[in-house]
Design goal:
This protein is mostly beta strands and about 140 residues long. Helix content is about 5%, strand content about 35%. The protein contains one helix and nine strands. It has one helix spanning about 30-35; strands at about 5-10, 25, 40-45, 60-65, 75-80, 85-90, 95-100, 110, 115-125. It has a seven-stranded antiparallel β-sheet, with no helix packed on it.
């Protein structure tokens, strides 16, 4: 695929730029880089501010893998009582807690009788660069 965006062969440094970074070579396929299980992966755009403390902001895109098992501390797309949202999962001995990463939102404990499922585990966060208007 010759139409893929180009990928630098060296890493980008947050200090002074390296002259070698002027040389771009191979293309990068973001699906190949970010999707381990294509049949079980989907992308979803974030709306809201409940996960800002985890670096997930309004407008970000999440890469979600349905083949991964949710584990304690992971961030996942959850469905509780037919409502979808993204939360950190805390696994307790008898229940799960769905924790927002913003103090404005209270944690939710999921009881055994709740209509609850985990739709997938967040594997990557794709962010838009915070560029001021008029600057590139």
């Amino acid at each position: 695929m010759d139409n893929l965006p180009k990928m630098s062969e060296s890493a980008v440094h947050a200090g002074f730029p390296s002259p070698a970074q002027d040389y771009m070579s191979v293309g990068i396929d973001l699906n190949k880089e970010l999707v381990r299980h294509p049949d079980a992966t989907f992308f979803v755009r974030v709306a809201g501010d409940s996960m800002t403390g985890a670096g997930i902001d309004d407008g970000d895109t999440l890469v979600v893998d349905r083949s991964l098992d949710p584990v304690d501390g992971c961030i996942a797309i959850c469905c509780l009582e037919r409502e979808f949202f993204v939360r950190r999962i805390l696994v307790g001995p008898a229940s799960w807690t769905l924790k927002a990463e913003n103090p404005e939102y209270k944690p939710v404990t999921v009881g055994p009788d709740a209509d609850f499922s985990v739709w997938g585990v967040v594997s990557y966060i794709i962010k838009k660069a915070n560029v001021r208007p008029g600057r590139l």
